[in-house]
Amino acid sequence: MKKTIIWSFIFIVLGFALGSSFYNGTYSSLNEVVKNKNKFYFLQEGVYNSLPSLKKNISNLEQKVIDHKDNNYYVYVGITRDKEVLAKLQKIYKEKGLQLLEKEQTINSEEFINNVEQFDLLIRESSEEDEILAIEEVVLANYEEVSG
Fold this sequence. Notes:
With 148 residues, this protein is of the alpha+beta class. It has helices at residues 2-37, 51-58, 83-95, 110-125, 129-147, and strands at 39-48, 65-69, 72-80, 101-106.
């Protein structure tokens, strides 16, 4: 009887240890996949705390999207999921004299994720600045619809 209790205790502890390590490993890797699936790279032109300041500083930007959060106005000129596309956009805007901040954000809209992935494919294949910016303008408009 004593041996049965000892063996039962050993198997319970062993089962708990194996189950815990399996669960933690699977959960964290699944969590990482979901987190990366919703990750976007935003090119931020600036943050403004007043509308007059915002209007004054962005008058030269042809395409942009403005997020109003926590009494601040965040101005974005590009959104992508692809590092290669991000580099192309940064290069274009750097040549235009803009210094941009790269920010990572998550968005949970499946429609937006699919749209951006398709637009990223188009941008990756394009080498024309006007074409790239026209595609990115659609991405920004799509983001406004999703976030609005």
